[in-house]
């Protein structure tokens, strides 16, 4: 265990761009990949990296997150100085909730001061990636830095969506700009830019002093990217840690995704279904831990009239049953049921979803516990006509909790489409 390090996981964002998935839960508690929650990735990285003094800073709709931490992450031993503790806003500095990422930590400075730590690792609880934080901390110590920012190389044409750092040949950061219109290129790669991942290491005294100073500035937004980093870069020694190239224990797949929008969330789930997934969830000594509920094994079984199930290029979680249905390129969370003649294409189904006989679901994210009536088609055309569901910019449909009978009247019947032709097209796409 890295005893001189305190880890803070920021988990307080509203997550409005992920609505309605965040209507009843915090963004880090949103399900991912069938059996995980988004925060499991940061927490698993901590576990494998030997970071076992962890404070999680939630704020909005935190019950689901707190329950998940209790059920899945009560694994550390307090008698050894290990803990994962959620710290909601306590109004210690004023009467406001957390006003930004930096303010969330500023309001809890007393925890940093009494921790006895020399270094603070600051993480976001809503990113999908695997990283050896121990290697990041080693780089911070070796470079004798005041702050270290984990960065990744991205195409310059995409870098305007990130906070972009400018580095010298020794990877010392000389400038930082949040979402620049013209990103600064890397010294040796003019077509690339160095983007911040929202993963930081600070020498604790530097962080405390900087946050106190920031709290006195009336024009500050209390944000790491907008306020803290630019100030530190001008005044202190800040270095960049290049993600995916160091010699940490985790395999260097270099995968990192901010799943802050419905489309980025959907795409990251679909990444798991590629023939060779870009993120390695199967490294034996770097597994992603989660809360495992007691469920029977997943299974496929013939339907009541003997129709055989078909499962193509999909993830099926414990307790899920495909009873004569067809599932293609989809993710079924625990306790999902797909009944005879039902078709599920390119979709993510949360815990306890049932798809009725003959129904069809295409490019959907279906919320927990939704019961899809028999014979209904849920695709872009039918849902767009009804106006009852959220549709992302790229046409992904979110079927919210509370969906039930409206589909009988507003969605098309499965009798209106040729499912056999559609299945053939889907199957062909995965055999090529």
From TrEMBL:
SUPFAM superfamilies referenced in this protein's UniProt entry, alphabetically: Nucleotide-diphospho-sugar transferases, Trimeric LpxA-like enzymes
EC number: 2.7.7.27
Principal EC category: transferase
Region named Disordered: 413-432
Pfam families: Hexapep_GlmU (PF24894), NTP_transferase (PF00483)
Segment forming the signal sequence: none
GO terms, biological process: glycogen biosynthetic process
Domain Glucose-1-phosphate adenylyltransferase/Bifunctional protein GlmU-like C-terminal hexapeptide span(s) in chain numbering: 296-399
Alphabetically ordered keywords of this record: ATP-binding, Carbohydrate metabolism, Glycogen biosynthesis, Glycogen metabolism, Nucleotide-binding, Nucleotidyltransferase, Transferase
Reaction(s) catalysed (UniProt annotation): alpha-D-glucose 1-phosphate + ATP + H(+) = ADP-alpha-D-glucose + diphosphate
Site features described as Could play a key role in the communication between the regulatory and the substrate sites, chain residue numbers: 59, 97
Record-linked InterPro entries: ADP-Glc_PPase (IPR011831), ADP_Glu_pyroP_CS (IPR005836), GlgC_bac (IPR023049), GlmU/GlgC-like_hexapep (IPR056818), NTP_transferase_dom (IPR005835), Nucleotide-diphossugar_trans (IPR029044), Trimer_LpxA-like_sf (IPR011004)
Nucleotidyl transferase domain segment(s): 7-273
Gene Ontology terms, MF aspect: ATP binding; glucose-1-phosphate adenylyltransferase activity
List of residues binding alpha-D-glucose 1-phosphate: 98, 163, 178-179, 196
Metabolic or biological pathway, per its Swiss-Prot or TrEMBL entry: Glycan biosynthesis; glycogen biosynthesis
Keyword Ribosomal protein among record annotations: no
HAMAP family: GlgC
Membership in a protein family: Belongs to the bacterial/plant glucose-1-phosphate adenylyltransferase family.
Function of the molecule: Involved in the biosynthesis of ADP-glucose, a building block required for the elongation reactions to produce glycogen. Catalyzes the reaction between ATP and alpha-D-glucose 1-phosphate (G1P) to produce pyrophosphate and ADP-Glc.
Subunit structure: Homotetramer.
Name of the protein described by the UniProt record: Glucose-1-phosphate adenylyltransferase
The organism of origin for this protein: Fuerstiella marisgermanici
Lineage: Bacteria, Pseudomonadati, Planctomycetota, Planctomycetia, Planctomycetales
């Amino acid at each position: 265990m890295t005893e001189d390090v305190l880890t803070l996981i920021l988990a307080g964002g509203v997550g409005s761009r992920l609505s309605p998935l965040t209507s009843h839960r915090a963004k880090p508690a949103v399900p991912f990949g069938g059996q995980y929650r988004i925060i499991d990735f940061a927490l698993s990285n901590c576990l494998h990296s030997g970071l076992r003094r962890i404070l999680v800073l939630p704020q909005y709709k935190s019950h689901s997150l707190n329950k998940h931490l209790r059920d899945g992450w009560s694994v550390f031993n307090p008698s050894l100085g290990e803990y994962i503790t959620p710290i909601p806003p306590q109004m210690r500095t004023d009467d406001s909730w957390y006003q930004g990422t930096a303010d969330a930590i500023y309001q809890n400075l007393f925890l940093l001061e009494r921790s006895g730590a020399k270094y603070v690792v600051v993480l976001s609880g809503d990113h999908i990636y695997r990283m050896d934080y121990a290697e990041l901390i080693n780089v911070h110590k070796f470079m004798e830095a005041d702050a270290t920012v984990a960065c990744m190389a991205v195409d310059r044409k995409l870098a305007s969506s990130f906070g972009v750092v400018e580095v010298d040949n020794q990877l010392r950061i000389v400038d930082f700009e949040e979402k620049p219109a013209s990103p600064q290129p890397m010294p040796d790669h003019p077509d690339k830019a160095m983007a911040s991942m929202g993963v930081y290491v600070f020498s604790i005294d530097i962080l405390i002093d900087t946050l106190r100073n920031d709290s006195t500035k009336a024009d500050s937004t209390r944000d790491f990217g907008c306020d803290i980093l630019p100030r530190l870069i001008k005044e202190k020694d800040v270095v960049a840690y290049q993600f995916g190239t160091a010699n940490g224990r985790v395999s260097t797949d270099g995968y990192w995704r901010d799943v802050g929008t419905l489309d980025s969330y959907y795409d990251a789930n679909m990444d798991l279904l590629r023939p060779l997934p870009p993120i390695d969830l199967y490294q034996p000594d770097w597994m992603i831990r989660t809360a495992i509920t007691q469920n029977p094994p997943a299974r496929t079984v013939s339907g009541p009239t003997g129709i055989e199930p078909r499962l193509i290029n999909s993830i099926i979680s414990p307790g899920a049953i495909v009873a004569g249905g067809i599932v293609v390129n989809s993710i079924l969370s625990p306790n999902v049921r797909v009944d005879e003649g039902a078709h599920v294409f390119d979709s993510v189904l949360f815990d306890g979803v049932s798809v009725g006989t003959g129904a069809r679901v295409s490019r959907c994210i279906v919320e927990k516990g939704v019961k899809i009536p028999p014979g209904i088609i849920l695709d872009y055309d039918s849902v767009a006509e009804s106006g009852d569901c959220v549709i992302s910019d790229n046409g992904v449909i979110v079927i919210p909790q509370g969906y039930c009978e409206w589909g009988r009247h507003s969605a098309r019947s499965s009798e209106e489409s040729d499912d056999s032709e559609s299945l053939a097209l889907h199957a062909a796409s995965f055999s090529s």
